[in-house]
Amino acid sequence: MNTKSCLRVLMRDTAMTGDQQGRSGLQLRGAIVMAFASPLQVGVRIVKSIRPDLNGRRLINEEKTQTWLVFNGLRHYVTSAQVYDALFRPGVNFDHLPDLDSVAEGPDLSPGTCLVSDSETGEIYLIFGDPSINIRKYAIKTYENFVELGLNEAVVRTVPPIVLAAIPAGRPIHFTMPSS
Known about the structure:
Elements: E1 14-18, E2 24-28, E3 34-35, E4 40-42, E5 45-47, E6 58-60, E7 67-71, E8 74-78, H1 81-87, E9 95-96, E10 114-118, E11 124-130, E12 134-140, H2 143-148, E13 157-159, H3 161-165
Parallel strand pairs: 6-9, 10-13
Antiparallel strand pairs: 1-2, 2-3, 4-5, 6-7, 7-8, 10-11, 11-12
């Protein structure tokens, strides 16, 4: 596979892909291109990269006007102070990343984004998306990932499993914690 070429497909959902050199990429179907772990120069544009090395980081732009949460290698824009308060515990740190624009973007964390827990299993989910188009639940697979994301246990709402069963699942949020 030629990693300098971009693929555009017209399907739904997301899928992880890999090439013969063992690099992984995320293929967002219907909208974007396949990207790999380092930006590739294409003419004068830089192809945005999937960055699993940034998982769990909370990023802020240079002007300190936009905040982002990174999971599954994608940065997700936190659209408002209300969304921020609905997710993050007080005092979490945000990092400045000089090449923030080179990180591929996932869906925004917009109003209505919330953290919920299954009343039977205790599993915690991040729920977000545009209700008129594509709302998804993303299982946060470990407590360590929950903490690394800077999320606030005090704002997690408990819901019955029947509510969660009605929401399509997105790719689970699970990443290896950085070595100390």
